[in-house]
Amino acid sequence: MKVCVMRHGEAGFSALSDSSRSLTAFGISQSKQAGQWLKQLGFHFDLGLVSPYLRAQQTLTELLTQVSVSQIETNNLLVPGGNPSKIANLLAMLPSSGIENVIVVSHLPFVGYLVNELCPEVSAPMFATAAIACIDLSHDVAGRLEWFHQAE
């Protein structure tokens, strides 16, 4: 199974709460460009897992203009302080459901910790906005980092 872990696009800071911060115009552009890049690679996702925070939801919306995602689930564990081992356990169960490609859209520091959880030999990478890590995840949840793409 391929798991793409993505940090949301650039977000503004003027909001009533962290969860309600929205993407900037640049963040929208970054997210769309990331979708174009995934499309060029031929990605189609069976499942999109996304944080409930506005900026992550908006990032996925922009991705959807470029690449298809068959099913989308908002997951309350995909917040900045979420537990990566719980998401790793969820991901481990997906291949038995026929899921082959997953995109996870979340936040710092969670995205780095999730990559480290799935690929223990990899130090938690520092994700710039709209950066994507692609992991080849085997059935025993032993992941191999295939590539790491930073938005331009």
How would you describe what is shown here?
The protein has 152 residues and is an alpha/beta fold. The protein has one domain: Rossmann fold, CATH 3.40.50.1240. Helix content is 30%, strand content 24%. It is built from 4 helices and 6 strands, in the order βαβαβαβαββ. The chain has helices at 25-40, 54-63, 84-93, 110-118; strands at residues 2-7, 45-50, 69-74, 101-106, 132-137, 143-149.
Question: How are the SSEs placed, and which strands pair?
Answer:
Blueprint: E1 2-7, H1 25-40, E2 45-50, H2 54-63, E3 69-74, H3 84-93, E4 101-106, H4 110-118, E5 132-137, E6 143-149
Helix pairs in contact: 1-2, 3-4
Short description:
The protein is 30% helix and 24% strand. The chain is of the alpha/beta class and 152 residues long.
Helix content: 25-40%
Unreliable spans are: none
Number of helices: 4
Q: Give the CATH topology.
A: Rossmann fold
Question: What is the C-alpha radius of gyration, as a whole number of Å?
Answer: 14 Å
Name the helix and strand elements from N-terminus to C-terminus, one letter apiece: EHEHEHEHEE
Number of domains: 1
Top-tier CATH class: Alpha Beta
Taking all residues together, what is the mean pLDDT? 95
Beta-strand share of residues: 15-25%
Distance between the termini: 27 Å
The biggest beta sheet is recorded as: 6 strands, mixed
Q: What's the CATH architecture? A: 3-Layer(aba) Sandwich
